[in-house]
Amino acid sequence: MRYETFCGGIFETNCYLLEAPEGPILFDAPDGACEWLLSKGVTPKLLLLTHGHFDHVPDVAKIKKTFGCQIGCHADTAPMISERDFFRNFGFELEIEPVEPDFLIAATPGRDFLGLEMEVLEVPGHCPGSLCFFLRKDELLIGGDVLFAGGVGRWDLPQGDGDLLFRGIRTKLFPLGDKVTVLPGHGPPTTIGAERESNPFVR
């Protein structure tokens, strides 16, 4: 499976563009993602969100308006993108342009996204409703801010839970197989095997 990566915003947040049989799928929408798509001449047909933290969603409304693509996310992510003052209510001086998701996504062993079969895993702890999208045939995991190269998603933000996060990584991600490539929300790609062997948080 070929993919392209864009890193945007002050937190250097990754998003990923995959070509499904029925059109391009974008995973997450950091600041600058819309302009990146325009510069490439790519029109995404689907935008899937791994979670709703501010650095992953600032371009969601802009991408929806520009390309008219469908937006899918977890039910816990929906208020983070649809309520303008969501982050202000937690004490952050942050505001987004609100947009409603077109459909909700829950954990499932298999779901078709534009002709691409993916397993969806829910791994909270960094953020409620954190989703990982697994392409078993390609041994590829779009992981959001769950597992990084040498690290894990921070759990000290509102509604974070470190024990829940570590347990989810060990019980849901590690069994996927050591050869699986992880595309994280920040930093370089890694593999399940490398993190099982050396990640200090979940080793």
Strand order of the largest sheet: 1-2-3-4-5-6
The count of DSSP E runs of length 2 or more, i.e. the number of strands, is 14
How is the CATH topology named?
Answer: Metallo-beta-lactamase, Chain A
Total domain count: 1
State Rg.
16 Å
Strand content: 25-35%
Helix and strand run: EEEHEHEHEEEEEEEHEEH
Which term fits the overall shape? globular
The SS-based structural class is: alpha/beta
The CATH class designation is: Alpha Beta
Q: Into which percent range does the helicity of residues fall? A: 10-25%
Please work out how many helical segments DSSP would assign: 5
Which spans of ≥5 residues are poorly predicted at pLDDT below 50? none
Average pLDDT metric: 94
Name the CATH superfamily classification: Ribonuclease Z/Hydroxyacylglutathione hydrolase-like
Sheet of most strands: 6 strands, mixed
The span between the termini is: 28 Å
Note the topology.
Layout (H helix, E strand, L loop, with lengths): L2 E6 L4 E8 L2 E5 L5 H8 L5 E3 L11 H8 L2 E4 L4 H5 L20 E2 L3 E6 L2 E7 L8 E5 L4 E5 L2 E2 L2 E2 L9 H12 L7 E4 L5 E2 H7 L5
Task: Characterise this structure.
This protein has 203 residues and is α/β, with parallel strands linked by helices. The chain has one domain (3-198): 4-Layer Sandwich (Metallo-beta-lactamase, Chain A), CATH 3.60.15.10. Helices cover 20% and strands 30% of the residues. It has helices at 33-40, 60-67, 78-82, 162-173, 192-198, and strands at residues 3-8, 13-20, 23-27, 46-48, 70-73, 103-104, 108-113, 116-122, 131-135, 140-144, 147-148, 151-152, 181-184, 190-191. The strands form three sheets. A six-stranded mixed β-sheet has the order 1-2-3-4-5-6, with helices on one face. The relative contact order is 0.14. The mean pLDDT is 94.
